[in-house]
């Protein structure tokens, strides 16, 4: 285009040049017009180019924001999915911290847990960027009281955002020291709550440079804290569910019959009870069931997996003789839910080898048969062709309570053990049909009524011999109870599992689900769920079935009035335990509200909903066909416990706002009280300083003249006078150290002291301190060993203060070590530090009181203070001076054995 323009311009200029007069003027005008058009065109193109570049940049910025948003959402989605279904929660949390730390460009990301009612804080999880030192091991068992500012700020404000650690307020001095010790320059932390209580906090920090965290970082961290709280809570619920599962497995272990669980698809053994494990002689978990139990290389051709998978809610019973044990079993197979949620095959086997042996013996010999049945552990009866019962062994009489005189014929048997006419007819028809078709076999599984009124679940085997029929009864009552308990507990676990995922549902949905599940688990026809107000009055109720009140002509207010007028209502509120009524007597019926009688409520079970050990509601079910049991009460209590906590958690949000307002008023009162305490503390410090100076002034004269008299400068002394002066000088020296300790404490409190650092040999300071204390304790028969070498590197410190430290420590060793004991001083050089150990064989310190010895004016007890002297401030001063020099001081001690004092000071960096 430019070339064309230049050619055109050249053409026009040529005509302007060769033309004259009016034509030349026309071409000049044309040339000017052309140039203007070109300029306007270029300006327009330039403007469009700028607009296009701005739009491209805008689209790029928008795209970058979308990419970042997608990365955040994708990362949080991965973390949520990972933590929701994590088998190893700790490992997944570590991974998620790494993902968030890299996403938000943090140097460290971490999780802290609050335990022991806010008394202790532990760093449980940590991620560090490359080149950043981990701090997790150093951040264990932190005192919640020492760092109360941090926890209160998290609880009240919901976040801590520190742009620069140096700008922390004075009340956060402990937190500031801890953060600076980790080289942290800026950080952000958010709490997470479980059941309305702070359970910990998460955060990012920077150690290489300060950083101001963005709103986006805060939103990411806030979302992660919610995910983490749910993960911890779900993990806690899962642990409770696993506990329930282990309790169920303990039932299997108590059964002295073979029980095992396997995968019906892979044939892998998942569990065997103790009885079967002892038979096999090894732990077969993880192996194929057909290999271990049958010795086959391929799955059994008689396997029932396909049958029970088609009918998952039904048990399948069959008989089998195991070729390995050569035992006969009646086996019950069914499908259950395993701990990981998959379908599993539960097999319970009952050994009927004796029964089978009895059958074979009957066919071989009547005489042998009679001997067997007389001693058989199973109930056995013999009936002749006329229907008369000729024989019943002792085991049968023991089980049902009837003798052969009570039940002489089969007709009497029907009437006695099957009292229900319809059930009796069903049993007889089954027996008549079976006995016509078979000479031996199983007549069925039935429920018989014993003489004492109890019911027993039995399987009846029969075999015909000549003119007689032999009945062998196998009692399955205990197996049935175990099976029933398994089914009920399994259903309850599934209900609690589903309820734990309903956090996002409405309160109405949670209530309805819990009420329906409570009715289903207990086999009840009706149910009601209610909550109380602050005055213990019912504020709301829901009933199931939904139309039950309308069907009988009642309203919700009628139901509330009826419940509050129930005479057992106060019992539920007072005892805070489930209420059960199975068989109401005349008094119960008479005192029952009219609404219950009109609705024909003949039995009920009510479980309280507790919050902080107060009854805030209840869940009641009614009209179960059988009696309500303790197991029903336990199942219902588990549901109310979880459901109540979830509902009350949602309702408590408004209460938190009220509490925050009250806390602000309380904090104001605490601030005023704190100001008064500071004033009293200053008065105490001033008193100590004044008294110490007043005591030190006359003491100087005492020390001076004491030394003159002791040195015989003022005249010769006899032996007794010299001994007396040594005592005076020794005690004066101890008094001087005590006064200097008080002076130092007052200067520490007033913060008006200053160390004069110099280059020091630690071995010389210790040697001098040892010589001073040894001279004051010449009357003690002690063995003293000093193996501290002179070759240790120099340290930087205040000679006077460090000398006082080791004088105090060595003096304590001499003071608390009886004559004949040993004192040793040793040292090592470790990673740029000098480690000094002062060990004695003295009276020692109880383990529970070691930390208290560092408190100001603390003595182990009054008797020790009188016996050994001292004001209890030496160790406190020593620890503070040592830490001011960048070191550490701690004790190891055992009462009656001795004490080790450890002092660590940093070497001087040349």
From TrEMBL:
Keywords: Coiled coil, Kinase, Phosphoprotein, Transferase. It catalyses: ATP + protein L-histidine = ADP + protein N-phospho-L-histidine. GO terms for cellular component: plasma membrane. GO terms for molecular function: histidine phosphotransfer kinase activity; phosphorelay sensor kinase activity. Gene3D superfamilies: 1.10.287.130, 3.30.450.40, Histidine kinase-like ATPase, C-terminal domain (3.30.565.10), PAS domain (3.30.450.20). This is histidine kinase. Its EC number is 2.7.13.3. Pfam families: GAF, GAF_2, HATPase_c, HisKA, PAS_8. Residues 690-909 form the Histidine kinase domain. Residues 365-420 form the PAS domain. Residues 348-375, 649-683 form a coiled coil.
């Amino acid at each position: 285009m430019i070339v064309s323009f230049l050619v055109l311009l050249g053409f026009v200029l040529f005509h302007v040049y060769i033309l004259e007069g009016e034509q030349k003027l026309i071409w000049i005008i044309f040339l000017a017009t052309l140039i203007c058009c070109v300029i306007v065109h270029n300006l327009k193109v330039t403007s469009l180019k700028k607009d296009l570049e701005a739009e491209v940049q805008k689209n790029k910025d928008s795209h970058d924001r979308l990419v970042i948003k997608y990365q955040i959402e994708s990362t949080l989605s991965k973390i949520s999915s990972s933590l929701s279904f994590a088998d190893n929660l700790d490992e997944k949390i570590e991974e998620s911290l790494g993902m968030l730390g890299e996403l938000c460009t943090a140097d460290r990301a971490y999780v802290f847990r609050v335990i022991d009612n806010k008394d202790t804080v532990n760093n449980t999880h940590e991620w560090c960027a490359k080149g950043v030192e981990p701090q997790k091991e150093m951040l264990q068992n932190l005192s919640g009281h020492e760092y109360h500012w941090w926890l209160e700020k998290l609880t009240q404000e919901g976040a801590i955002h520190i742009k620069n650690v140096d700008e922390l307020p004075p009340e956060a001095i402990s937190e500031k020291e801890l953060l600076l010790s980790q080289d942290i320059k800026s950080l952000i932390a958010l709490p997470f709550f479980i059941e309305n209580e702070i359970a910990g906090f998460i955060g990012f920090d920077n150690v290489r440079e300060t950083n101001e965290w963005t709103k986006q970082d805060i939103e990411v961290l806030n979302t992660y804290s919610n995910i983490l709280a749910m993960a911890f809570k779900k993990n806690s619920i899962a642990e409770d569910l696993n506990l329930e599962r282990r309790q169920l497995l303990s039932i299997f272990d108590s059964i002295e019959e073979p029980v095992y669980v396997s995968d019906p698809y892979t044939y892998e053994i998942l569990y065997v009870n103790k009885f079967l494990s002892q038979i096999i002689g090894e732990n077969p978990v993880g192996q194929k069931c057909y290999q271990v139990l049958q010795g086959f290389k391929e799955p059994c051709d008689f396997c029932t997996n396909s049958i029970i998978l088609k009918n998952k809610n039904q048990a399948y019973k069959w008989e089998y003789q195991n070729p390995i044990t050569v035992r006969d079993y009646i086996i019950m197979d069914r499908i259950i839910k395993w701990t990981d949620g998959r379908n599993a095959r539960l097999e319970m086997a009952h050994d009927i080898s004796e029964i089978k042996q009895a059958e074979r013996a009957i066919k071989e010999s009547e005489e042998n048969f009679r001997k067997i049945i007389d001693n058989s552990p199973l109930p056995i009866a013999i009936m002749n062709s006329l229907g008369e019962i000729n024989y019943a062994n002792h085991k049968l009489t023991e089980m049902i309570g009837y003798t052969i005189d009570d039940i002489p014929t089969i007709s009497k048997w029907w009437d006695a053990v099957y009292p229900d006419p319809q059930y009796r007819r069903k049993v007889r028809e089954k027996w008549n049909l079976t006995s016509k078709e078979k000479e031996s076999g199983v007549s069925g599984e039935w429920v018989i009524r014993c003489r004492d009124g109890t019911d027993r679940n039995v399987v009846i085997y029969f075999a015909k011999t000549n003119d007689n029929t032999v009945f062998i009864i196998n009692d399955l009552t205990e197996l049935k109870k175990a099976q029933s308990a398994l089914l009920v507990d399994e259903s309850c676990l599934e209900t609690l599992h589903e309820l734990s995922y309903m956090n996002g549902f409405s309160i109405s949905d949670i209530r309805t689900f819990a009420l329906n599940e409570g009715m289903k688990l207990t086999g009840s026809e009706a149910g009601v769920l209610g909550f109380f107000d602050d005055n213990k009055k019912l504020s709301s109720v829901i009933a199931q079935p939904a139309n039950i009140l309308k069907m009988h002509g009642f309203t919700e207010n009628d139901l509330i009035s009826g419940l509050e007028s129930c005479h057992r209502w106060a019992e539920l509120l007072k005892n805070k335990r489930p209420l059960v009524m199975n068989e109401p007597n005349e008094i119960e019926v008479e005192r029952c509200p009219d609404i219950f009688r009109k609705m024909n409520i003949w039995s009920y079970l009510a479980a309280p909903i507790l919050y902080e050990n107060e009854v805030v509601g209840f869940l009641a079910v009614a009209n179960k066909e059988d009696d309500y049991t303790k197991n029903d009460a336990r199942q219902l209590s588990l549901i109310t416990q979880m459901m109540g906590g979830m509902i009350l958690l949602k309702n408590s949000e408004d209460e938190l706002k009220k509490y925050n307002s009250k806390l602000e008023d309380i904090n104001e009162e605490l601030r005023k009280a704190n100001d008064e305490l500071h004033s009293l503390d200053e008065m105490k410090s001033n008193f100590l300083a004044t008294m110490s100076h007043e005591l030190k002034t006359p003491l100087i004269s005492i020390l001076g003249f004491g030394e003159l008299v002791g040195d015989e400068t003022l005249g010769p002394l006899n032996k007794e006078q010299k001994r007396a002066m040594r005592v005076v000088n020794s005690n004066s020296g101890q008094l001087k150290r005590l006064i200097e300790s008080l002076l130092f404490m007052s200067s520490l409190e007033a913060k008006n002291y200053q160390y004069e650092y110099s280059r020091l040999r630690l071995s010389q300071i210790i040697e001098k301190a040892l010589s001073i204390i040894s001279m004051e304790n010449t009357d003690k028969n002690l063995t003293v060993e000093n193996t501290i070498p002179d070759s240790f590197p120099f340290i930087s410190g205040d000679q006077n203060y460090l000398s006082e430290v080791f004088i105090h420590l060595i003096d304590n060793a001499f003071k608390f070590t009886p004559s004949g004991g040993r004192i040793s001083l040793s040292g090592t050089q470790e990673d740029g530090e000098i480690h000094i150990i002062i060990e004695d064989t003295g009276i020692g310190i109880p383990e529970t009181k070691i930390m208290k010895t560092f408190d100001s004016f603390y003595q182990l007890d009054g008797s020790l203070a009188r016996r050994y002297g001292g004001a209890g401030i030496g160790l406190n001063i020593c620890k503070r001076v040592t830490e001011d020099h960048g070191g550490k001081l701690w004790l190891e001690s055992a009462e009656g054995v001795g004490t080790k004092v450890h002092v660590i000071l940093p070497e001087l960096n040349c």
